Amino acid sequence: MDQDVLDAGLGDSDDDDFDEIVEESVAELPEGRYLDRELSWLSFNQRVLELAEDPALPVLERSNFLAIFGSNLDEFFMVRVAGLKRRIMTGLAVPTNVGRAPIDVLADISAAAHALQVRHARAWNDHVKPALSESGIDIVSWDDLSDADKGRLYGYFQAHVFPVLMPLAVDPAHPFPYISGLSLNLAIRVRNARTGRQEFARLKVPPMLPRFVEVPGERVRYLTLEDLIANHLADLFPGMEIVDHHAFRLTRNEDVVIEEDETENLIQALEAELMRRRFGPPIRLEIADDMDEVTLDLLLRELDITEQEVYRLPAPLDLRGLFDLSKIDRPDLKYAPHVPTTAIAFQPGDNNERPDIFAAIRKGDVLVHHPYESFATSVQAFLEQAAKDPQVLAIKQTLYRTSGDSPIVQALIDAAEAGKQVLALVEVKARFDEANNIIWARKLEKAGVHVVYGLVGLKTHSKLVHVIREEGGVLRSYSHVGTGNYNPKTSRIYEDFGLFTASDEVGGDLTRLFNELSGYAIEKKFKRLLVAPLHLRKGLLRLIDRERRHALAGKPASVRIKVNSMVDEQIIDALYQASNAGVTVEVWVRGICSIKPGVEGMSENITVRSILGRYLEHSRIFAFANGGDPQVYIGSADMMHRNLDRRVEALVRVTAPAQLTELTDLFDLAMSESTSSWWLGGDGVWTRRSRDAEGKPLLDLQEATMTAVQKRRRPRATR
After folding, report:
1. How far apart are CA 274 and CA 621, in angstroms?
2. Calpha distance 257→235 (Å, rounded)
3. Cα angle at 548 between 543 and 554, to 5 degrees?
4. How many helices, marked H, and strands, marked E, lie in the chain?
5. Tell me: the pLDDT tens digits for 66-78?
6. Which residue stretches of the chain have pLDDT < 70?
7. In angstroms, rounded to a whole number, what is the distance separating the alpha carbons of residues 609 and 411?
């Protein structure tokens, strides 16, 4: 739909008039209508923890969810908590949609995070660890071992661990050492046998070694690396008495801040900022619950950290190490293997010949659902065929996150080396992938790819590929617009959609958009795309408002939105207004949600669900009943300020009837009371509903989708 057509269809040709209408209706909404985004995020991670606590799940998957919880929480502190602290300390305005002082928000975060981390530790020690033991996998302590076991492990320690350990003393000649972020450490107190004086030393647990050391024997047993090291400290401090030792772990501010308007070279500025990030100020100190006050006081003083930022937990610290247990060869303790099927349109023919991706797309738009349908035989095959096809003249692609050895990057290199015009818009500011993105951006440049880094002040988060092919003397566009990154590894665990199309409208939209991203064009019109930051917010507000008008006119009206995060106040207010007009609003969110659903006079018609499972729900869907003529978009944008105002995002309208039905059916299943999910209440509490009134398990959406997609088969021709 052309943006002008969209405007006309809503009856709002003047943007100022539309803004006034929105402001007037917002004024009628009550104060305190949003849930706190940071506490909502902690609630999301609690849902991850609830999966780890669920005895119905395979125990190695439960262990993996504990590791995911830990990894998630680390990033939350490194970015969100660090960002709040930085703004408070520098006097910057702190964005909050709940009307409370930032210092109170930090206190609430600290209290909730403390409770969750204690619960996390108990889930491991009291539930998952014993369940592993019942399944024949023991996580043991040094004191559990026989003398023979200890002797064998001492040999391992001497051969593989001792040579890489680096104890660092703290005394007048040795200042307190730098403690790297997220490192696991031992704080050690020793006594000098000659002088009787106590000294302090810090020992970093080597992160390159396996966190769990296998204990030889008939039964599968593992000992944590820090336990092995702690019981051989005498080898590191000969002639000294080991007085005490305790584990601790530090989290630092690792949020990257670059003033792009003030730098001449983005890459150099980013590299300098990444170096600075290593030395960011401490924001959380995790300590073993047996740490004495003398050691703790020393750490607090030297690290300049407050009591509120100390998290005293049962050992072991840093349960991210549980990711290592997933390598254990026990398929009976994991989810059943799932092999993605090839989308019907891209399946080989009767003679098993290699499919022609371009021919398949010319027949009609192709919607692919990962990881149920293969990324390798769709997106990857599309780019690889484009790189080799002599009729392809140009390839343009956005890259936000991808693996370093990615076949996607290699396809672009192959295309450039074959003489094609190749443009890669690399987002080097993708958080925690900055260094990796710089490396392969330079690799692309060396191969002759035109690499650009997007627009100043904006991250390019859209997922786009545009291929130009000459056919019969005419140039034809082949496009892919997705909801997820061009990353073969995460495509196997992230749920996403991608639309392939040979539509001239989409091709024209992408031509204009890539010109804007690589040059100086400022486009205001797109036909099948909604693009941030100029059009997406207002486009969605108009679409939601159109549903409100349809409801008031007695026409079919509903809004369905599937996103990772829903926190933007303008969008939420528009949904509240639509609800008050009688519009059925269904929100399917994985993570943060600031909506208060089911509140009388504000959101009676709003329902919010969350689904977590073996795959990370990552796709974004926006569906509108439109008076009986449904309109559905998929794309890259979440409902957050950064996505709508500070990123280049793109949604594409899905038009094929069968694909609209597929997306509608998926939403129906997700929102059904017979499907296992979490329900959000107006008080901000998420309630898990995984069993019916008789105690029987509810439907698993991901398992059901997996089964349904596997049953799709191309009919074989009969001879």
Report:
1. 34
2. 44
3. 125
4. 22, 27
5. 999 999 999 999 8
6. 1-27, 90-102, 171-174, 255-279, 402-405, 428-437, 454-456, 520-524, 713-719
7. 39
pTM assigned to the model: 0.90
Binding residues for Mg(2+): 401, 431
pLDDT in tens, 477-516: 999 999 999 999 999 999 999 999 999 999 999 999 998 8
Query: Cβ distance 85 to 106 under 8 Å?
Result: yes
Task: Give the burial class of 457: count Cβ atoms within 10 A of its Cβ; 0-12 exposed, 13-18 middle, 19 or more buried.
Answer: exposed
Token representation of residue 150: 């200890």
Cis omega (within 30 of 0) on the bond before 371? yes
In terms of C-beta density within 10 A (0-12 exposed, 13-18 middle, 19 or more buried), how is residue 99 classed?
exposed
Q: How many CB atoms lie within 10 A of CB 718?
A: 4
Spatial CB neighbours of 58, under 8 Å, sequence gap ≥ 6: 332, 333, 334, 335
H helices of 581-628, where? none
With a CB cutoff of 8 Å and minimum separation 6, the contacts of 245 are 186, 187, 188, 189, 230, 233
* Alpha-carbon span 70 to 89, nearest angstrom: 27
Q: Please state the three-class secondary structure of 567-619 as a single string.
A: CCHHHHHHHHHHHHCCCEEEEEECCCECECCCCCCCCCCEEEEECCCCCEECC
Binding residues: 72, 401, 431, 494, 590, 618
Catalogue all structural domains in the chain, each as residue range(s) with its CATH number.
Answer: 11-30+530-710 (3.30.870.10), 39-333 (3.30.1840.10), 344-527 (3.30.870.10)
What is the CB neighbour count within 10 angstroms for residue 699?
Answer: 16
Is the Cβ–Cβ distance between 598 and 681 less than 8 Å? yes
What sign does the CA torsion over 85, 88, 94, 98 have? Answer: positive
Q: What single-letter amino acid sits at 51? A: L
Site of tokens 């909404």: 29
> 32, 26, 96, 46: which is closest to 596 by C-alpha?
32
Strands 558-563, 421-426: parallel, antiparallel or unpaired by DSSP?
unpaired
Is residue 284 within 8 Å of residue 251, measured between CB atoms?
A: yes
Structure tokens belonging to residue 643: 């996505």
Maximum Cα–Cα distance for the chain, whole Å? 95
Record the tokens describing residue 83, joined without a space. Answer: 């960002």
- Identify the burial level of 549 via C-beta atoms within 10 angstroms of its C-beta, where 0-12 means exposed, 13-18 middle and 19 or more buried: middle
CB 567 within 8 A of CB 594: yes
Residues annotated within a binding site for ATP: 72, 494, 590, 618
For residues 15 and 538, the answer to whether their CB atoms sit within 8 Å is yes
Catalytic residues: 461
Rg, the chain, Cα only: 28
Strand order in the sheet with 198-204: 168-170, 198-204, 184-192, 240-252, 282-288, 310-313
